[in-house]
Amino acid sequence: MTAAPAKTIGILTSGGDCAGLNAVIRAVACRAIEGYGWRVLGIRQGTMGLMRRPVEFEELGPSVFSSTMLRMGGTILGTTNKGNPFAFPMPDGSLRDRSEELIEGYRELGLDALIGIGGDGSFAILRRLAQQGGFPLVGIPKTIDNDLDATENAVGYQSAVAVATEALDRLQPTAASHDRVMILEVMGRDAGHIALAAGIAGGADVILIPEIAYTIENVAAHIERVRRRGRNFALVVVAEAVKDSFGQQVRQRHGIGTETYGGIGHLLGATISKVTGAETRVTVLGHVQRGGQPTANDRLIASSFGVHAVDLIAAGRFDRMVAWQNRQVVDVPLGKAIAAPHLVDPHGAMVRTARSLGICLGDC
Ligand code: F6P
């Protein structure tokens, strides 16, 4: 029997970072190098590394097998959530299709396959590139928003929920000491998973998510109810994409022309104060949810995903995304995984749990 020819695979992290990315990189490198005797090239700054000349990459070796990688936040490869190569912003303000440069970069590295660690936006771009360039691609889902269909958990989500829950643990005693209503604004883009999960786990009185429309009257009435029952404080969690009283999502403009959600917490704090007479304080958790050490569960998911992705390449199965379903690591067609976002089901178990615990979701 002749040995299978050695392969060279590429790996990149794309989109917003999160806790657990280095654990994925470690697992991929370990399985590919130790398990199959392949070479692994880490591409820097997501797809940007393939666009730059010379192509920016580093060969991964035994140093990334270190358990330090399991604990380390961020991504050693760097990442980007800007610069769609199909409409790349040029210095003169125009948009240029630079996809062929990327594909050329991929070929220059002599790769046999690429592993992309990303969310829905990154996968849409990588998949289009793979189809155009005719190269094999496997996806590993990561996003604190947990809005990818077909996987119960994306890497980073559980760590973000743990951070938001800890924030509520810390806000509760100070809220009680000062008789205040504390508002915690959390990330999640268009999905309320972080808000809902952390709100339940952290004992929130009110949880507002973009999937369920609220009125300020319902929120105020619930805070009054809490008071009448003899409690002097309340905890409110709001997801960043929740709309203001004019039905608009609140956005922050950043210096270099980018925009993100942010600001609904402060608007809500001012309104709750006005309507209920309560003293309010607002905490915007922001990128704290993305950094830091991954939880044990995120490390387990990251490790299983990394190993399974390499095994898919070994088996010649491409255009797939690894996924977590029913306590197992499985794989699904990548196109199907990004066809529609996974939002909070207003009739699902988590919403039912919240309602049954007397948590107000703003709609009644
Ligand atoms: O998608 C991940 C995420 O953290 C969202 O929850 C948030 O809205 C956005 O990225 C923030 O992006 P940036 O890193 O550009 O501020």
Describe the structure.
The strands form four sheets. A seven-stranded mixed β-sheet has the order 3-2-1-6-7-14-15, with helices on both faces. It has helices at 21-36, 48-51, 68-71, 99-108, 120-133, 157-178, 193-201, 216-228, 264-276, 296-314, 334-337, 349-356; strands at 8-13, 39-43, 57-60, 88-89, 95-96, 113-118, 137-141, 180-186, 206-208, 234-239, 251-253, 259-261, 279-284, 320-325, 328-333. The protein is elongated. It is 37% helix and 19% strand. The chain has two domains: 8-155 and 294-325, Rossmann fold (3-Layer(aba) Sandwich); 157-290 and 345-356, 3-Layer(aba) Sandwich (Rossmann fold), CATH 3.40.50. It has 364 residues and is α/β, with parallel strands linked by helices. The mean pLDDT is 97. The chain contains twelve helices and 15 strands. Helix 1 runs parallel beside helix 10 (296-314) and helix 7 runs parallel beside helix 12 (349-356). A hairpin with a 5-residue loop joins strand 11 (251-253) and strand 12 (259-261). 6-O-phosphono-beta-D-fructofuranose binds next to strand 12.
Short description:
The chain starts with 7 loop residues before the first strand and ends in an 8-residue tail after the last helix.
CATH topology call of the largest domain: Rossmann fold
Q: What is the domain total for the residues?
A: 2
Number of helices: 12
Unreliable segments of 5+ consecutive residues: none
Q: Oligomeric form of this entry?
A: single chain
Rg (CA only): 22 Å
Tally of strands: 15
CATH architecture of the largest domain: 3-Layer(aba) Sandwich
Overall spatial form = elongated
